[in-house]
Amino acid sequence: MSFVATKKLTLFDYINYSLLGVISLACIFPFIYVFSVSFTDPEVYVPLQFYLLPEKWSLSAYKYILSTNSFINALKSTVFVTGIGTVLSIIISFTFAYVLTKKVVPGRRFMLSAVIFTLVFNAGILPNYLLIKELGLLNSYWSLILSGLTNAWSLIVIKSFLESLPPELEDAAHIDGCSDIGVFWRIVIPLSMPAIAAFTLFFAVSYWNTYFNALIYLTDAKKWTLQVLVKSLVIDSDSNGVGAAGGGGDDRVIPQETIRMASIVLAIVPILIVYPFLQKHFAKGVMLGSVKG
């Protein structure tokens, strides 16, 4: 018979756990409030009242939002930017990082120094805006995609991960007559799937939450992303962002607050759905890229 020693909790442990519990509840309650208000029936909604659970459940706010052109256009814009941007970011980041691992590549030191330089110095908002303008990308989805293709932190972590892969595998592939491109696609990429899964989530969340770039680069309201539309609804208190309240096949007047909360839920749910499918690769991918040896 084996006995498992249990640590006796001290006063500090009780205080620590209690404090962490209070902080956790303080973080969770706003989400509960947003969720509850979004599902509250307009007939029983009372402004400035905290809802732990809706008194009467209703999908009126969601039906209304999903029936408006503004929200549908914003959703399409965000899906397009996220989908195309994530794929291109993964391709650019891993190919560039792979080049940085090869000491025989001409100009490798300069490219690596340029990447590290951007960790310390940033051009700023105005030069970036002028660059996008000179490239003719203003009011284009490509201004959001190309401006966030990759970053120095991602390149350094991916480079560290690729350097941790056994070099003997690449040598064996070269001996078998495989080209450099063939080694990358047939050897490196399959071994990098945990890291690819992790950075796919990183890039997807970044593009999905694109707000500031969309705000300054997109001048046409029809091309707004979800985050800009939600900001217009929540911060600017502009329900006209999705049309006048009281539509979408529902004759009742829908409170602006329920519309705002429903739009917030619709903006965060897709990422919450995708995350569980990548979670098993998430921690492994990040740790493999952070430690070498």
Keywords:
293 residues; mainly alpha; MetI-like fold; 13 helices; Carbohydrate ABC transporter permease; transmembrane; cell membrane
Can you characterise this structure?
- The chain has 293 residues and is an all-alpha fold.
- It has a single domain (59-293), classed as MetI-like fold, CATH 1.10.3720.10.
- It is built from 13 helices and no strands.
- The chain has helices at residues 11-38, 60-66, 69-100, 108-120, 125-134, 142-146, 152-163, 167-175, 180-191, 193-208, 212-217, 226-234, 256-290.
- Helix 7 runs parallel beside helix 13 (256-290).
- The longest helix has 35 residues, at 256-290.
- It starts with 10 loop residues before the first helix and ends with a helix.
- The model is unreliable at 244-249 (pLDDT under 50).
**Which CATH class?**
Mainly Alpha
State the separation between the terminal residues, measured CA to CA: 40 Å
Largest sheet: none
CATH superfamily annotation? MetI-like
Q: Outline the low-pLDDT stretches.
A: 244-249
CATH topology, which one? MetI-like fold
What is the total number of structural domains? 1
Question: How many DSSP helices?
Answer: 13
* Shape label: globular
β-strand amount: under 5%
- The helix fraction, in percent, is 55-70%
Give the overall pLDDT as a whole number.
82
Give the SSE order as H and E letters.
HHHHHHHHHHHHH
Oligomeric state as shown: single chain
Number of strands: 0
- Class computed from helices, strands and strand pairing: mainly alpha
Which architecture name does CATH use? Orthogonal Bundle
